[in-house]
Amino acid sequence: MIQVFAHRGASGNHPENSLSAISAALDVDVDGIELDVQSCHDDYAIIHDTWLDRTTNGRGMVRDATREMLNALDAGNGEGIPTLQNVFDLIGTKATINLELKHTYSLDKFVQYIENNINAGVIERSQLILSSFDHHQLVWLKQKLPWVKIGALTASIPLNYAEFAQKLHAYSIHMDKNFINHEFVLDAKQRGLQVYAYTVDKQRDIELVLDMGVDGIFSNYPCHAKMAINRF
Ligand code: G3P
Ligand code: CA
Q1: What three-state secondary structure class fits 53?
Q2: pTM for the complete prediction?
Q3: Which residues lie near ion ligand 2 (Cβ < 5 Å)?
Q4: Coiled-coil segments, which residues (predicted)?
Q5: Spatial CB neighbours of 126, under 8 Å, sequence gap ≥ 6
Q6: Domains contained in the chain, CATH given
């Protein structure tokens, strides 16, 4: 089964990384939901950019704002910026949660946060994927949480990338749809890795990456993506 991940939630029709985007994704029974995590001054915020300016009516850097300051902002359609806890509470065990670490600091605290939610039964180990473009972070996270599924995230294909992911004991490789090729997918699969493509919205692009043998896609329009996959 090809896995469909809602990219920043169902962000094609809802504010990205918002609770409504997550709910819409759950409504269409996605396999997973991809969300971006940034550290703010005293919590973890679900927002893509380092700066507040593009997606909210606030200004400045996310990391300088307290949770209370972020709560006062509009991140689209009158919705606020979710916290990591909001996301865990909403998704729970209904879908895989793929957290992409952006500027996420105090990783010890982040790991503790995850463990607390697992111990409390809010989320399940098997339904969590951690990814990051910062491969040092991935290595560190896998050492701290040996059980966690690591999504080795790349915007290109660095030399020996599948080998790196295998050595890291990653679960999956998440890569830009424009860099995927048959040979790479085959190599990754032979190493026991899942290959997921981002961000794939158009029918033609979906067909292209499926043809290359990917195991899953990230889409801003997960409902359309599911239909396109069924037609393939
Ligand atoms: O995780 C895949 C994809 O979301 C990475 O790029 O910029 O959309 O976070 P970006
Ligand atoms: Ca992302």
Answers
A1: coil
A2: 0.98
A3: 36, 100
A4: none
A5: 149
A6: 3-35+93-231 (3.20.20.190)
